[in-house]
Amino acid sequence: MIGLGIAVGLILSYLAGLILANKALVPIQKSWEKQSQFVADASHELRTPLSVIQTHLELLFRHPTNTIEQESITIFKSLSEVKRINKLVEDLLTLARSDSDEKQIDPHWFFFDELLRLIIEQFAPIAEMKDILIEDNIEDKLQYFGDKNRLHQLFVILVDNALKYTSAKGRVNISCKKEGSLLRIVIFDTGVGIPESDLPFVFDRFYRSDKSRTREEGGTGLGLSIAKWIVEAHRGHITVESKLVEGTRFTIKLPLKERLN
Ligand code: ADP
Predict the structure, then answer these.
(1) CA distance 16 to 32
(2) How are beta strands 133-138 and 171-179 bridged, if at all?
(3) Residue 161: CB within 6 Å of ligand 1?
(4) Mutate which of 92, 98, 161, 207 to test ligand 1's pocket (most atoms within 8 Å of Cβ)?
(5) What phi and psi values does residue 142 have, to the nearest 5 degrees?
(6) What pLDDT does residue 60 have?
(7) Mean pLDDT over all residues of the chain?
(8) Whose C-alpha lies nearest to ligand 1, atom 2?
(9) Which one has a higher pLDDT value, 17 or 111?
(10) Which of 19-28, 120-129, 221-230 is least confident?
(11) Residue 200 alpha carbon to ligand 1 centre in Å
(12) So what's the ipTM on this one?
């Protein structure tokens, strides 16, 4: 009888061990699945421009009698695909860094308003070319402790998108002010907008709302996931609101007194 009790006890503790081990394995398996999906998506994104380049090079090779104009067009198209691959690899490296245990950001004191004005200056020629008005409402002398280069990268992504998805005669507005213990930055545009059903996914890796259009615009679908990582590395928060045809608004809240690293 006692022997039977010991045997049942042993079986029960063995089963409990199995259940616990299984529970512990679930997050590892989930992370593994996420990683495999990421590699599959990245490979797919790289394959498209590579096969376009291959087709163009084969064209050049098979038709040596083409005119210089025809060859220039083929070379130009190949070059723009090479640029796409470069951008994709750069974005992938940034995300790989965000996933690693490496030091994520390198904070210093700087004036936030100066960073935003620099961004506006850098995008002014593109806005002018596209006939889009950039307006700003930025408080002066906003001292902030953070990674200026990463935050520059964040606003390049957001302002580049705002200009990309807004047509001529539209507006892009950039505002920044101190609100209690945080900085509130809003970037809104009067562009095409994002469908409501897509809004929960726009910060996901490789997510594109309008796939054909964004590919045409040179998008990788990685920009907003990098933007989210940069904001969160500064202990901040980023949200998006949008209405089709009316426009899109990104709001970023960055705490001023947070200790980083
Ligand atoms: P992409 O490199 O394709 O622009 P992002 O991650 O930056 O990738 O953006 C994801 C998707 O969100 C875009 O493909 C686009 O469909 C949508 N999107 C981002 N910003 C805007 C915006 N300002 N206006 C309209 N759609 C936007």
Answers:
(1) 24
(2) parallel
(3) yes
(4) 161
(5) -95, 95
(6) 86
(7) 89
(8) 219
(9) 111
(10) 19-28
(11) 12
(12) 0.98
Ligand 1 nearest-atom number relative to CA 193: 25
**pLDDT tens digit sequence for 172-221:** 999 999 999 999 999 999 999 999 999 999 999 988 877 655 656 667 88
247 lines ligand 1 (CB under 6 A): no
Q: Using a 6 Å cutoff on CB, does residue 154 contact ligand 1? A: no
Task: Tell me the two tokens of residue 210.
Answer: 């309008």
Report whether residue 229 contacts ligand 1, using a CB cutoff of 6 Å.
no
Pocket test for ligand 1, best of 165, 201, 239 (most atoms within 8 A of CB): 165
